[in-house]
Amino acid sequence: MVATSDYDEFHKLAKRCLLTNTLGSNAQRRHRHHRETMIENISSKLHDTLKKDPIRPINFREVFESELFGLAMKQALGKDVESIYVEEIGTLSRKEMHKVLVMDMMEGAIDVDWRDFFPYLRWIPNKSFELNIQRKHFRRMALMNALIKDQMKRIDAGEEVNCYLDYLLSEAKTLTMDQLAMLLWETIIETADTTLVTTEWAMYQLAKDTIRQVKEENFSQIRYLDAVFHETLRKHSPAPLVPLRYVHEDTQIGGYHIPAGSEIAVNIYGCNIDKNYWENPEEWNPERFLDEKYDPLDLQKTMAFGAEKRACAGSLQAMLLACGAIGRLVQEFEWQLKDGEEEKVDTVGLTSQKLHPLLAVLKPRN
Ligand code: HEM
User: Fold this and answer.
1) Exposure b/e, 208-230, CB count within 10 A at least 16 = b
2) What is the rounded CA–CA span in Å between residue 140 and residue 78?
3) Helices (DSSP H) in the chain: which residue ranges?
4) 282 forms bridges with which residues in the sheet?
5) Which pLDDT does position 109 carry in this prediction?
6) 273 lies in a domain?
7) Which of 117, 178, 186, 330 has the lowest tally of Cβ within 10 angstroms?
């Protein structure tokens, strides 16, 4: 039997808390004002920039990334912190915090240790690799601890905010400080990365799409927005590989013998562009999801969120954030790629982010 990844008591506690306070449907309803503020801020930043220079291409990522990080911080800690003094590393601005908590960790996840390709040489030290990972981990933990301590002062002063930190402190009292820091950090990095990647690819596809001539009316239809979201996830899966699954017993898959003790990964990207399943899989075509065979409420139309017990806990949040932003941005502006942008489809990093940030020329619609 191939079991899903280990699913122990700690994992169950963590996932239950995360869904109850932050990512489940009731929780997402409570966090609606954060989403509305985020989209409002993005819209006014874009309008302000265009007022100053209407023909200058906009770097969409710069605006969206900063606002999404703010939402992640509010959801996790109750506050979008502008700067913080961390005893071990000094004072960090908001941009530096984003680097320590998100960018450095995403880079670290794909750092290659050459010894993985030559396991019999594992005894040779690879000091620079190890030091680099340790340094990133050290900075992340130091910053998370400082952020938590700061917010604990607020909580001790009797101020209650509906955020994940407050919830964990009152409902999961057995957590160690390190566990608390890691659980909070996990929601920050997951909120701040994959949703950005998906929204940026969706806006690229929409801005490029001269055939469909993106119409404002389409985007007041939830069904069309949903189709754009899922088609973007299919074509540009931000998690191309599902985390490893541990094989508990000898088994057969697709004619291959898989011995107990192996670890296997599922190629999500492969499933999402499989010609046996999708018609013209290379084409970005949201209309395919308007077919009645797809339930608009089903978040698992593609393999992008994984499957079974370990399936993504944040799929609802990702959908609400991305669809909310895409709908509003298309209703407010006409989008056109800057000349030469069309060919820029290379990806980078663990989550297949667009290598070149999307540059588009925007025109406010009345
Ligand atoms: C478009 C956006 C996203 C995509 C494509 C995505 C994809 C995935 C995938 C493929 C997995 C692994 C599933 C498996 O092992 O079967 C996963 C796990 C997870 N994701 Fe997401 N994710 C997204 C957004 C988010 C967001 C916004 C959050 C929350 C802040 C989140 C939280 C999680 C968590 C907590 C897990 C681990 C679940 C577990 O181990 O039980 N994800 N995600």
Assistant:
1) beeeeebeeebbeeeebbbbbbb
2) 19
3) 9-18, 25-30, 32-52, 60-77, 94-98, 104-109, 127-156, 164-171, 177-192, 194-208, 222-235, 268-272, 315-332
4) none
5) 84
6) no
7) 117
Say which CATH number the domain at 71 has.
1.10.630.10
In this prediction, the answer to ipTM > 0.90 reads yes
Residues 6+ apart with CB under 8 A from 129: 111, 113
Assess if residue 130 is contained within a domain: no
Q: Which atom of ligand 1 is nearest to the CA of 306?
A: 16
User: Is 323 known as a binding-site position?
Assistant: no
How far apart CA 258 and CA 278 sit, in angstroms, is 28
What digits encode the pLDDT tens for the residues 264-319?
A: 878 888 889 999 999 999 999 999 999 999 988 899 899 999 888 888 999 999 99
**What pLDDT, on a 0 to 100 scale, did the predictor assign at position 50?**
97
Phi-psi region of 261 (alpha: psi -120 to 50; beta: other; left: phi over 0): left
Domain count, the chain: 1
Enter the tokens of residue 342. 């069309």
Best residue among 305, 317, 347, 353 to mutate for probing ligand 1's pocket (most ligand atoms within 8 Å of CB) is 305
Report in angstroms the alpha-carbon separations of 333 from 10, 131, 321, 350.
46, 46, 18, 31
Residue 309, in any domain of the structure = no
Q: Is residue 170 part of a domain?
A: yes
Strand partners, 348: 353
CB atoms within 10 A of CB 269: 18
Asked whether 318 lines ligand 1 (CB < 6 A), one says yes
Q: Name the residue range of residue 71's domain.
A: 9-79+161-238+314-364
Which residues fall within 8 angstroms of residue 4, CB to CB, at 6 or more apart?
Answer: 245, 308, 309, 310
Residue whose CB lies within 8 A of the most ligand 1 atoms, among 312, 317, 347, 354, for a mutation test? 312
Decide: 306 in ligand 1 pocket, CB within 6 A. yes
